[in-house]
Design brief:
The protein has 95 residues and is α+β, with helices and mostly antiparallel strands. It has one domain (8-94). The protein contains 1 helix and 5 strands; from the N terminus they run βββββα.
Protein backbone atom coordinates (compact mmCIF):
# COMPACT_ATOMS: atom_id res chain seq x y z
CA UNK A 1 0.00 0.00 0.00
CA UNK A 2 1.34 3.41 -0.91
CA UNK A 3 1.93 5.50 2.18
CA UNK A 4 1.14 9.15 1.59
CA UNK A 5 1.80 10.72 4.95
CA UNK A 6 1.10 14.37 5.58
CA UNK A 7 -2.32 14.23 3.93
CA UNK A 8 -5.12 16.14 5.64
CA UNK A 9 -8.29 14.18 6.31
CA UNK A 10 -11.60 15.76 7.26
CA UNK A 11 -13.94 13.69 9.40
CA UNK A 12 -17.08 14.31 11.41
CA UNK A 13 -16.92 14.07 15.20
CA UNK A 14 -19.44 12.60 17.62
CA UNK A 15 -21.34 15.89 17.86
CA UNK A 16 -21.38 16.67 14.12
CA UNK A 17 -18.35 18.96 14.19
CA UNK A 18 -15.70 18.87 11.46
CA UNK A 19 -12.35 17.52 12.63
CA UNK A 20 -9.19 17.81 10.57
CA UNK A 21 -6.44 15.25 10.97
CA UNK A 22 -3.01 14.84 9.43
CA UNK A 23 -2.06 11.34 8.32
CA UNK A 24 1.19 10.61 10.15
CA UNK A 25 1.74 6.96 9.27
CA UNK A 26 0.02 3.83 8.01
CA UNK A 27 0.88 0.63 9.86
CA UNK A 28 -0.16 -2.97 9.27
CA UNK A 29 -0.88 -5.25 12.22
CA UNK A 30 -2.06 -8.81 11.57
CA UNK A 31 -2.84 -7.99 7.91
CA UNK A 32 -5.07 -5.04 8.85
CA UNK A 33 -4.14 -1.44 8.07
CA UNK A 34 -4.32 1.25 10.73
CA UNK A 35 -3.77 4.98 10.38
CA UNK A 36 -1.93 7.09 12.92
CA UNK A 37 -3.51 10.53 12.77
CA UNK A 38 -2.78 13.83 14.46
CA UNK A 39 -5.56 16.34 15.07
CA UNK A 40 -4.76 19.72 13.50
CA UNK A 41 -6.52 23.06 13.66
CA UNK A 42 -8.29 24.17 10.49
CA UNK A 43 -6.28 27.40 10.35
CA UNK A 44 -2.96 25.48 10.41
CA UNK A 45 -3.74 22.95 7.69
CA UNK A 46 -0.94 24.21 5.46
CA UNK A 47 1.65 24.16 8.25
CA UNK A 48 3.77 21.03 7.82
CA UNK A 49 6.73 22.48 9.74
CA UNK A 50 5.65 21.05 13.10
CA UNK A 51 7.03 17.50 13.26
CA UNK A 52 6.06 17.06 16.91
CA UNK A 53 2.72 15.36 17.28
CA UNK A 54 0.70 16.39 20.33
CA UNK A 55 -1.68 13.45 20.38
CA UNK A 56 -1.96 10.55 17.97
CA UNK A 57 -5.23 8.87 17.13
CA UNK A 58 -5.27 5.29 15.84
CA UNK A 59 -8.06 4.37 13.43
CA UNK A 60 -8.72 1.24 11.38
CA UNK A 61 -8.43 1.78 7.61
CA UNK A 62 -10.82 0.07 5.25
CA UNK A 63 -9.86 0.23 1.58
CA UNK A 64 -12.64 -0.12 -1.00
CA UNK A 65 -11.52 0.23 -4.61
CA UNK A 66 -9.79 3.64 -4.75
CA UNK A 67 -11.24 5.01 -1.50
CA UNK A 68 -10.24 4.59 2.12
CA UNK A 69 -12.52 4.99 5.07
CA UNK A 70 -11.46 5.30 8.68
CA UNK A 71 -13.22 3.56 11.54
CA UNK A 72 -12.94 4.12 15.26
CA UNK A 73 -11.55 1.09 17.08
CA UNK A 74 -14.30 0.44 19.60
CA UNK A 75 -12.80 -2.70 21.12
CA UNK A 76 -10.38 -1.90 23.95
CA UNK A 77 -8.69 -5.25 23.33
CA UNK A 78 -8.04 -4.49 19.63
CA UNK A 79 -6.92 -0.92 20.38
CA UNK A 80 -4.48 -2.04 23.09
CA UNK A 81 -3.13 -4.81 20.85
CA UNK A 82 -2.50 -2.40 17.95
CA UNK A 83 -1.01 0.28 20.22
CA UNK A 84 1.32 -2.31 21.76
CA UNK A 85 2.41 -3.55 18.32
CA UNK A 86 3.12 0.02 17.20
CA UNK A 87 5.07 0.74 20.38
CA UNK A 88 7.16 -2.42 19.97
CA UNK A 89 7.84 -1.54 16.33
CA UNK A 90 8.97 1.98 17.35
CA UNK A 91 11.30 0.55 20.00
CA UNK A 92 12.87 -1.85 17.49
CA UNK A 93 13.48 1.01 15.04
CA UNK A 94 15.23 3.07 17.74
CA UNK A 95 17.71 0.26 18.51
Amino acid sequence: MEQQTGQIIKTIGEHGEEIFMKLVEIVTVDDKDYALLSVVQEDTLQNDDNDEEDELVIMRMIKNDDECTFEIIESDEEFNYVASAISESDEEEEE
